[in-house]
């Protein structure tokens, strides 16, 4: 795990931060930080507040949430027609849930900033045996397996800002004529501290992350005393934390205490990603401990990240049957504890890709993946996403 010193918007601290790239040029990074601090915030405090109010409905069990988008967004997709396709896709899935339940559904895109990836292995071994730094998202390096292009380049943080702004422009254009409750909001993983800290802005209600509407903390950076949780605690946006099979009840309770001390409904979302096999044993004690504290939390199921495996040919994939099983177990456990299963967090694309598979893991031996385009994790294609959303709907 990469550790580094980090700087907060309020000054320099020596908090250790997990999953930070090994930036090649420290002076250039400082220059980029100053540049980002001088640029306008991308989101407004009013938008962030509207999303929090919409999520408050989900915290009270009166609305649903559908978060979705690419695992790793690409800079070259920051063009209006690509963004519109993604928005139409998310809106279509949200309408399935709306029509099926009569409830409000808040669509939230993994978009307009989902340019940074945590990696389990900082290096990737190429077929010829060479080792190159792993791809960490377009905000850090290039997916091409070339040692020069894989160096962490701070100027990419400015490109990430520009592309996020372009995507957000297309998102706002889609809001015309829609009520606040029917808009798609933006979200990404709060991972790269020099970027996120430089985009904290001070509004009427205090500091907020002006890089996005909703920011989440990944499973690898969720230490309650770590720099990422510290950043999320210092801003008033709605925030999420990925909850994995090794998150203990005490850890979850501490996250609630640090991230939602004022018990604001809609402020904190737990995105459960345990894996179909672990969820039944790992989730009940955690839900029980959080519910006992009485502080509202929005519970979402990410049935994807705990069910990733490599197919025999080497492709990273996930089977729909495992994802369905995790979603089912999630809804059952939440219901047993009288908590509201508020929705799904999915990696999906409007493109007809073949990245996830429709068959159980045991039957993937001879599979080929002719349209594998993701530079990171496997996404659901439109038919697969619809199947999963329908499966969730039937459980409600
Ligand atoms: C992701 O959402 O792409 C991700 C890396 O998830 P997690 O932190 O849950 O592994
Ligand atoms: Mn992913």
Automatic annotation (TrEMBL):
Q: In which family does this protein belong, per the annotation?
A: Belongs to the class-II DAHP synthase family.
List the Pfam families.
DAHP_synth_2
Binding annotation for phosphoenolpyruvate? 110, 242, 273
Name the residue ranges with Low complexity bias.
1-18
Q: Where is this region: Disordered?
A: 1-26
**Which Gene3D superfamilies does the UniProt record give?**
Aldolase class I
User: What name does the UniProt record give this protein?
Assistant: Phospho-2-dehydro-3-deoxyheptonate aldolase
Listed GO biological process terms: amino acid biosynthetic process; aromatic amino acid family biosynthetic process; chorismate biosynthetic process
Q: How is the cofactor bound?
A: Binds 1 divalent cation per subunit. The enzyme is active with manganese, cobalt or cadmium ions.
| Listed pathway(s) | Metabolic intermediate biosynthesis; chorismate biosynthesis; chorismate from D-erythrose 4-phosphate and phosphoenolpyruvate: step 1/7
According to the UniProt entry, what is the EC number of this protein? 2.5.1.54
Enumerate the residues binding Mn(2+).
71, 305, 347, 377
The protein's annotated catalytic reaction(s) are: D-erythrose 4-phosphate + phosphoenolpyruvate + H2O = 7-phospho-2-dehydro-3-deoxy-D-arabino-heptonate + phosphate
UniProt entry keywords in alphabetical sequence: Amino-acid biosynthesis, Aromatic amino acid biosynthesis, Cadmium, Cobalt, Manganese, Transferase
SUPFAM superfamilies named among the record's database cross-references: Aldolase
What Gene Ontology molecular function terms does this protein carry?
A: 3-deoxy-7-phosphoheptulonate synthase activity
Cofactor requirements of the protein = Mn(2+); Co(2+); Cd(2+)
Q: Does the keyword Aminoacyl-tRNA synthetase apply?
A: no
């Amino acid at each position: 795990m990469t550790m580094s010193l980090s700087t907060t918007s309020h000054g320099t601290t020596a908090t250790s931060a997990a999953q930070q790239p090994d930036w090649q040029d420290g002076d250039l990074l400082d220059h980029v930080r100053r540049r980002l601090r001088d640029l306008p915030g991308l989101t407004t405090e009013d938008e962030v507040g509207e999303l929090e109010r919409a999520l408050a409905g989900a915290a009270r069990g009166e609305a649903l949430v559908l978060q979705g988008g690419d695992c790793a967004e690409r800079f070259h997709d920051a063009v209006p027609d690509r963004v519109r396709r993604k928005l139409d896709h998310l809106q279509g899935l949200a309408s399935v849930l709306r029509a099926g339940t009569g409830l409000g559904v808040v669509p939230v895109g993994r978009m307009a900033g989902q340019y940074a990836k945590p990696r389990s292995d900082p290096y990737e071994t190429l077929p010829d045996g060479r080792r190159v730094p792993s791809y960490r998202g377009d905000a850090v390096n290039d997916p091409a397996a070339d040692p020069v292009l894989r160096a962490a380049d701070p100027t990419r943080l400015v490109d990430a800002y520009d592309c996020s702004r372009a995507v957000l422009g297309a998102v706002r254009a889609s809001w015309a004529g829609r009520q606040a409750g029917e808009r798609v909001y933006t979200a990404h993983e709060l991972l790269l501290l020099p970027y996120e800290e430089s985009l904290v802005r001070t509004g009427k209600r205090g500091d907020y992350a002006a890089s996005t509407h909703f920011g989440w903390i990944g499973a690898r950076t969720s230490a309650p005393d770590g720099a990422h949780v510290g950043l999320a605690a210092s801003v008033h946006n709605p925030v999420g934390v990925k909850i994995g099979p090794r998150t203990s009840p005490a850890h979850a309770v501490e996250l609630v205490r640090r991230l939602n001390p004022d018990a604001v409904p809609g402020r904190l979302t737990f995105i459960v990603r345990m894996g179909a096999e672990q969820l039944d044993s790992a989730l009940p004690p955690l839900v029980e401990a959080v519910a006992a504290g009485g502080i509202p939390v929005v519970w979402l199921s990410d049935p994807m990240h705990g069910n990733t495996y490599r197919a025999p040919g080497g492709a990273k994939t996930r089977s729909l049957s495992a994802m369905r099983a995790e979603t089912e177990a999630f809804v059952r456990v939440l219901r047993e504890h009288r908590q509201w299963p508020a929705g799904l967090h999915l990696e999906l694309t409007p493109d007809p890709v073949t990245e996830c598979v429709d068959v159980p893991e045991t039957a993937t031996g001879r599979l080929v993946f002719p349209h594998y385009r993701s530079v990171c994790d496997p996404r659901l294609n439109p038919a697969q996403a619809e199947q999963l959303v329908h499966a969730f709907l039937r459980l409600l």
